[in-house]
Design a protein that fits this description.
Layout (H helix, E strand, L loop, with lengths): L1 H30 L3 E2 L1 E3 L3 H5 L2 E8 L2 E5 L4 E6 L6 E2 L4 E5 L2 H36 L5 H32 L3 E3 L4 E6 L6 E2 L4 E6 L4 E8 L11 E6 L4 E10 L9 E7 L12 E7 L1 H8 L2 E5 L4 E3 L2 E7 L5 E5 L1 E5 L3 E5 L6 E3 L13 E2 L4
Parallel strand pairs: 1-24
Antiparallel strand pairs: 2-23, 3-12, 3-16, 4-11, 5-7, 5-10, 6-9, 7-8, 9-11, 12-15, 13-14, 13-16, 14-15, 17-22, 18-19, 19-20, 19-23, 21-22
Helix pairs in contact: 3-4
Pfam families: Beta-barrel_RND_2, BSH_RND
GO cellular component, one term: efflux pump complex
GO molecular function, one term: efflux transmembrane transporter activity
């Protein structure tokens, strides 16, 4: 009887071990599903490859100066001051300008007197010539004197008008609404005509300025789309490449690229930091045709056909053939993928068709 009970107990224990062993093998099999690194095969991967930090700038930045020289007697703005078109920003001493205007008026009066005398002499000798009292050469001489006096009078009028205009140049006025970004002259300083005294940035049209290395500027063209993200306001906007500098900066050896923002987000201000992700037109066209930029490690070469591992909805992998368009720095441009395809980008040689995998998103 005891032997029978012992045998039954041994059998029951063996059956329990088999059950638990089966469950453990299933759990171990699930735990053995490898964790893979993936990337979605859409055109955003192309934009992420060309991201640059930039600064919000005004499209129109005017270095302002006086058209006449003199001593600055008042400065009405500070750095950062908002101004409107027509506001007086600085004023220089107008005394010298007024004296030059008065001098021009005096020269006009002198030239007018000379012209009147030449006209009377010409009229007198014209009458004498008609009476055959003087020779034709004498009349020609007085005609020439009159023509010279008339030209001198016209010249004096022009100089006087220039002096009158200069009287209006003693006030430096804003030509448009904007913000004063820098001031390089102070009250009491004597400045010359054309010397920059301040910089006015128009705020009605802001854009982003980035610096592109010389080995990447060839892949950018005017009209390329861009996605602009702002660090300060945590917002994003669509941009377009408006301008590419024709020459590299002599110090940094980078090319200045301006990206316009047709619909700027609320709170976008001068000097803010932004991140610009460029998307070339060729990338847009390619993206619609199933082109993606992948790491070189995503390619699984089987014979002469390049393939990639794609994770399905059931978390199993399968091979999908692709066409290699171009190679870059540890990256490859391929065609033949759908934008929703989830591509394995690392450890592709350790996978097999139908194998269950785990992704970062699932974990």
């Amino acid at each position: 009887m005891k032997g029978y009970k012992l045998c039954a107990a041994v059998c029951l224990l063996a059956m329990m071990n088999l059950v638990f062993a089966g469950c453990g093998s299933k759990e171990q099999e699930q735990e053995r599903a490898p964790l893979v690194k993936t990337q979605q095969a859409d055109s955003s991967s192309l934009a992420d490859n060309s991201s640059y930090s930039g600064t919000v700038r005004g499209r129109y930045e005017t270095n302002m100066s006086f058209q006449v020289g003199g001593q600055i007697i008042s400065r009405n703005v500070q750095v950062g001051s908002s101004v409107r078109a027509g506001d007086v920003l600085m004023t220089i001493d107008s005394r010298d300008v007024v004296q030059k205007s008065n001098q021009g008026d005096a020269q006009v009066a002198q030239a007018r007197a000379q012209l009147d005398l030449a006209q009377r002499n010409l009229s007198r000798y014209s009458q004498l010539y008609q009476e055959n009292a003087v020779a034709a050469a004498t009349l020609d001489q007085y005609q020439a004197n009159y023509d010279a006096a008339f030209a001198a009078y016209q010249n004096a009028l022009a100089q006087a008008a220039q002096g009158h205009n200069a009287m209006g140049y003693t006030n430096l006025t804003a030509g448009a609404n904007g913000v004063v970004s820098s001031i390089t002259a102070e009250e009491g300083q004597v400045v010359g005509a054309g010397q920059t005294v301040l910089t006015l940035v128009q705020t009605n049209e802001l854009e982003i300025e980035i610096q592109v290395p010389e080995n990447r500027v060839a892949g950018i063209a005017v009209g390329d789309r861009a996605v602009v993200k702002f660090w300060a306001i945590h917002d994003r906007a669509e941009g377009v490449v408006r301008e590419i500098a024709p020459m590299a900066d002599s110090a940094s050896r980078t090319y200045r690229v301006r990206v316009s923002v047709p619909e700027p987000p609320a709170g976008m201000q001068l000097g803010m930091t932004a991140n610009v992700a460029l998307t070339p037109k060729s990338a847009d066209d390619a993206g619609s045709a199933g082109t993606a930029l992948l790491p070189l490690s995503a390619i699984y070469q089987d014979g002469d056909t390049p393939q990639v591992w794609v994770v399905g909805d059931d978390h199993t992998v399968s091979l999908k053939p692709v066409t290699v368009e171009n190679f870059g720095d540890n990256q490859v441009l391929v065609q033949g993928l759908a934008p929703t395809d989830l591509v394995v980008t690392a450890g592709v040689h350790k996978l097999r068709a139908g194998q269950s995998v785990r992704t970062e998103a699932a974990d």
